[in-house]
Amino acid sequence: MIAYILRRVAYAVPILIGVNLLTFWLFFFVNSPDDMARMQLGTKHVTQAAVEQWKRERGYDRPLLWNGGETGWRRFTDTIFYEKSLRLFVFDFGISDSDNRDIGYDIRQRMGPSLAIQIPGLLAGLAVDLSLALLVVFFRGTYLDVWAVVLCVVLISISGLFYIIAGQFLAGKLLRWVPISGFGAGWVSIKFIILPVAIGVIAGIGSGVRINRTFFLEELGRDFVRTARAKGLDERRVMIRHVLRNALIPILTGVVVVLPSLFLGCLVTESFFGIPGLGSYTINAIAAQDFAIVRAMVFLGSVLYILGLLLTDISYTLADPRIRLG
Amino acid sequence: MEWFSAFWRRPLAGLSLLATLGIGGCGGAPWNDPYPAADSHKNIYYDSFAERPKHLDPALSYVENEAEFLAQIYEPPLQYHFLKRPYQLEPLTLTEMPRPQYRDADGAPLPDDAPVGAIATTVYRFHLRPGILYQPHPAFARDAAGRYRYQSLMAADLDGVRTLADFRETGTRELAADDYVYQIKRLVHPGRPSPIAALMSQYIVGLKELGERMAADYQAMKAGPAAAAFFDLRKYDFAGARVVDRYTWEITIRGKYPQFLFWQAMTFFAPVPWEADRFYSQPGMAERNLTLDWFPVGTGPYMLTENNPNRRMVLDRNPNFRGEVYPSEGEPGDAAAGLLADAGKRIPFVDRAVYSLEPEQIPYWSKFLQGYYDTSGISSDNFDQAVQFTGRGDMVLTDEMRARGLKLLTAISASTSYIGFNMKDPVVGGDGERARLLRRAIAIAVDFEEYINIFANGRGVPAQGPLPPGLFGYRKGEAGINHYVYDWVDGRPRRKPLSEAKRLLAQAGYANGIDADTGRPLVLYFDTTATGPGAKAVVDWWRKQFAKLNIQLVIRDSDFNRFQEKVRKGTAQIFQWGWNADYPDPENFFFLLFGPNGKVEHEGENTANYVNPEFDRLFDRMKNMDNGPERQALIDQMTEIARRDGPWLWGMHPVGFSLHHAWYHNAKPNLMARNTLKYKRIDVELRARLRAEWNRPVLWPMFVVAAIFILSLLPAVLVYRRKQQAAALERTAA
Predict the structure, then answer these.
(1) Of B22, B582, B701, the CB nearest to A190
(2) Tell me, what's the ipTM?
(3) How far apart are CA B268 and CA B186, in angstroms?
């Protein structure tokens, strides 16, 4: 397995370089270093000299990818791409363009709030989705099953933003159960987490129940389920020991792959609830044209995604002894 | 169903316990209170910010949302009187207002009424009030031997340090004239030049040369072994700013520039102690985001004790603040409005100010109505809920808002939102009569009164020229109307009829929107950043205005960068722009039309690239004059020239609306001063009572939901039991 992991890590390097190149190209296709400077300097009393100074201070006065004015390796190394993007491979995220803050520090600070929403959301969502899916499967072929599927489709069709606004209106404004938005330190944060987590769970019920129902139905038709019933096992044991356990592989695929990306938070939820996580960090950076943060977050996202895929593969071997990684 | 309930019983119980702990942990406070219950009776002011500040260094910050914090912490020499109007400067840290001393080219003193042409330099002497102390800060901490405790740190010394609070010792020292001069040098710091560096270099004698000298030394230092060392500005002297003694300093500027004193009320000229600069320049500080840009050090009534721009920022009362008293004079009506009730009392009133990040409007507005913010603006989305029109067209609060005891304040902002014609454009620009008539016809046709009603909920005043109301030079009534666009009818301005616009258009050679020279329809181009479906209504409205004259308007929408680039390069034809006053002086608006300030050729703020030699000549005379009849006469002439040439559609002056709760006192709009937190007073007990009253949780839906949940499970339980008890044959049959 170690050889497999090392091989996957090696594969990740060209993927990350590609992602970096693509991000770099896309960003500078839309913005020039001059645009970035003017965005940060504001609109009042901005001179070209000030723009040049801003670029010089942050190393954006170099050519983008190729420095024809240099010789040897410096033609490649004395460029914005080399200076800014390749450092990421040692997780040196550098300083933000808009407010000169250490990006690594900010990322570490903001991971906590993102995880505070994402982990309970994932666990509660999983619990609710699996329970409801099992329940629906229990009533398979009945009107309850049909209406449950219809309801799932309706829930999927509603925009996530609607759940947030309706949830804030209902639970925060009308019923006054929880704060509408905000975040706190330590245990105080629980009262701020309840609403976004609940909204996340409800918003995910439609898709979660449908997909898990499919997994369960697939297992339900297998021979070993019929055998279990023939042996006289009651429905509880059949469902939990045989159906749920054997449906774990596809469920794991969906869960483990998102585990690392939980660190990155949710863009919309964090923005609406004023949660200081990495989702809102990314959105603010895009709005402020802060390339330093954008590239750091894209890189981090890519690393975590690759890590998620690797963890998924490993988790297969744990869930199903027949699978071997070679 | 036992399997189902058994499977999830424990996790659900845990979750409900968690929820109870979370909500119930608030004690007696409302469940939806976003603040700690222990704070509900404390003297705290609650506000919000939508966008995280980028700079809190007084040399770098030039944005409104940053000034809201900075102005409470740093103290420039002067401030605006809180209540008096027109806006009036007064000493803040000084013993008296500085008086200009004019000098000729040989340095000989000139009388106060010396002609502008004779004045080579002006010297301002500032006398500092003794005994002003900085806030407690580790940069000032000293050991028993008097040595600085934290000024020679190595990176390893900062292990475990994450915030300023991790430094156990703090100190202070008295504010000195050196600190003001030090900050002026910081404006041209080679590593982080101020946005006003270029502007101030034009005025302050020797500042530009100082910047060049320092830049050369800075580059040399960065290239050498001491690249990370503290770049000490104290060793640089220059003629433009000089320390006379511990409490006195002088600034020498070129020529006569009376507006310079307004700059002395801005935080660009607030003192910064060199100790702070050196403290933050030590290795390891920047990596922990411990910089002057994030942790200011000032002498003001408040100090920043929590700076988490991702969540909240907290200002606490500065224990070393010398104390000021609430003003005892204002303008007529202030006493009746209760604004002088605190006259003579020591300020600041509020112990702490908590600003929470609130990027979205909906939660922000809801929390304001719940009493969790003390004051709020009104967005377009909430306007109808907050404000209604009376039969006479006045705007008043709705019954719902009045029932909550809310108060509404309005003020015409010292800003202007205009539509610029690029005067370099061959069709709409230039000094020719044809283009002038075309611009005038458009000015009549574009109905800004309608624009204000539709898109600004009536929150604006149609502009009659570049000057907004409230500034010296602005004329009210009939004398103040733009008679090229308006007639004075029944005691108010009325836009000229469309027929007049059509007549002018025909006179310009575009009868019925057809170019007489080419026989083709007249097509004009409007550049805007308004994009997407949300902007469709505005864009359609603009097309409709030009269509009144049968002019085809092509909308060229682009992102902010491209839009700015077009204006900068002069490739936009018609565009929307605005200006927010730096200070309350007509010079700060008329310079937007001053030829040598053109955007394309001089990188200035004259976005229309308007050039009129007569206007420029009058501006040169007007800008340095003291307010008086002679200056008013020049302003009248300049206004007339600008109206006649019409390089802008004058647009509108926005009217700011703000709401505040009944417990919030001493609210008076002051569009120039930012350091107004010290005047605010909160009736804490009233706030706590009303918050509790407004936020009682509605519990019955909880029980209803639980009942529905249980009832809906019941059939499932019954079916499950029936299935479990059924015979195998029957089950198979089923």
Answers:
(1) B22
(2) 0.85
(3) 9
